C-alpha cells in the first residue's frame, strides 16, 4: 500500500451489531481498513449492541489507556427468570412469578447496587481464573468461584416497568434501565444480583452501550456504513477527546522524543495519562507524571 493510500492512524467508533463478538468486529475492520493493526478498547458481549472503540494502525497503542473509562448503557432486565449466563443467551434455570414485586422494592434493590460495590462477574465472562477464561471453565462443567471485584455504578435508573408473560407462562417484570459505570462492570451481573435480592431471579434481555468515555453513539458508524466509507477519528483528535492536553515548545518536544524525562507542571499531577502536543499541534506522546517528571507511556511523534 502506498503512503498516500495508507490507512490513517486513529480510532473508529463502531455501532456493534447484535450477534457479533468484539473479535468478529475487529476481524471485519481489518478487511475494511486493509490492515492487520486493529484492536478494541474493551469487549462488548455478543448479544449487546452499541459503542465499540477500535484503534487502527498506531492508535492501537492508545487502547490500553482508553479502556479505564466510564461507560453508559441502556438495557432491559427481566425479573422472574434466572439463566445460566445471566442474559437471554443462556438456558433458563428458574422461573418465579414476579408480578407482586413492587416499584419500591425495585428501587431499594437498585440503591444497593449503586455506588462503589463489590461485584462477582458472570461465570461465562472472559475473566481469567488461573490463566484460563471463566467461560471456558464453565463450558467444561467445572465448579469454581470468581472473586468479587470493586466496581463503581455511578448511576442506575429505571425508566419503565412493564408487566409481561414469559414463554413458559410465568408472569414477569421487564425493567428498562440506564446504567453509568466504571470499566469492568458487568450489566448482566447487576441484573442477576437485583433479581436475587428481590427473591425472583433476573437476567438481562437487551443491552445497548451508548457511551465509552467521551465517545458516544451519535459518532458511531455501523459496519455497513464503514464498508461504504471508512471514518477514522485522527489520532490527535482522539487523544484530545480522551486525555488532558499538554502543549510543549519545540525544544521540549525534541527532548521528549529523544527519551528525556521532562519536568511536568503541577496541574498534571495525579491525572493519569496526559497527551503531549508540539507547537504545530502534532500528537507526540502519552505520558504520566511520576515524581514531577513525565514518564512516557507511548510515543507517537
Automatic annotation (TrEMBL):
It is an enzyme of class 5 (isomerase). Its EC number is 5.4.99.25. GO terms for biological process: mRNA pseudouridine synthesis; tRNA pseudouridine synthesis. Keywords: Isomerase, tRNA processing. Residues 31-187 form the Pseudouridine synthase II N-terminal domain. It catalyses: uridine(55) in tRNA = pseudouridine(55) in tRNA. Residues 188-231 form the tRNA pseudouridylate synthase B C-terminal domain. The active site is at residue 45. GO terms for molecular function: RNA binding; tRNA pseudouridine(55) synthase activity. It holds the Pfam family TruB_C. Residues 243-300 form the tRNA pseudouridine synthase II TruB subfamily 2 C-terminal domain. HAMAP family: TruB_bact. Responsible for synthesis of pseudouridine from uracil-55 in the psi GC loop of transfer RNAs. Belongs to the pseudouridine synthase TruB family. Type 1 subfamily. This is tRNA pseudouridine synthase B. It comes from Streptomyces resistomycificus.
Amino acid at each position: 500500500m502506498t503512503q498516500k493510500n495508507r490507512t490513517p492512524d486513529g480510532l473508529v467508533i463502531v455501532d456493534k451489531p447484535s450477534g457479533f463478538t468484539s473479535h468478529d468486529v475487529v476481524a471485519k475492520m481489518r478487511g475494511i481498513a486493509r490492515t492487520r493493526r486493529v484492536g478494541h478498547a474493551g469487549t462488548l458481549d455478543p448479544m449487546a449492541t452499541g459503542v465499540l472503540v477500535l484503534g487502527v494502525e498506531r492508535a492501537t497503542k492508545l487502547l490500553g489507556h482508553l479502556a479505564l473509562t466510564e461507560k453508559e448503557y441502556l438495557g432491559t432486565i427481566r425479573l422472574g427468570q434466572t439463566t445460566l449466563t445471566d442474559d437471554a443467551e443462556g438456558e433458563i434455570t428458574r422461573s418465579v412469578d414476579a408480578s407482586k414485586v413492587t416499584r419500591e422494592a425495585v428501587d431499594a434493590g437498585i440503591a444497593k447496587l449503586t455506588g462503589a460495590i463489590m461485584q462477582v462477574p458472570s461465570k461465562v465472562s472472559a475473566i481469567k481464573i488461573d490463566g484460563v477464561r471463566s467461560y471456558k471453565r464453565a463450558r467444561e462443567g467445572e465448579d469454581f468461584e470468581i472473586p468479587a471485584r470493586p466496581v463503581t455504578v455511578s448511576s442506575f435508573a429505571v425508566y419503565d416497568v412493564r408487566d409481561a408473560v414469559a414463554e413458559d407462562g410465568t408472569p414477569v417484570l421487564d425493567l428498562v434501565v440506564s446504567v453509568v459505570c466504571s470499566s469492568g462492570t458487568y450489566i448482566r451481573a447487576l441484573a442477576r444480583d437485583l433479581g436475587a435480592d428481590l427473591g425472583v431471579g433476573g437476567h438481562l434481555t437487551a443491552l445497548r452501550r451508548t457511551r465509552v468515555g467521551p465517545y458516544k453513539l451519535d459518532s458511531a458508524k455501523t459496519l455497513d456504513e464503514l464498508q461504504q466509507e471508512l471514518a477514522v477519528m485522527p489520532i490527535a483528535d482522539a487523544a484530545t477527546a480522551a486525555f488532558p492536553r499538554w502543549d510543549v515548545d519545540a525544544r521540549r518536544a525534541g527532548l521528549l522524543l529523544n527519551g528525556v524525562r521532562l519536568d511536568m507542571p503541577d496541574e498534571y499531577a495525579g491525572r493519569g495519562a496526559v497527551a503531549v502536543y508540539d507547537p504545530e499541534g502534532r500528537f507526540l506522546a502519552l505520558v504520566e507524571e511520576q515524581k514531577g517528571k513525565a514518564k512516557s507511556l507511548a510515543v507517537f511523534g
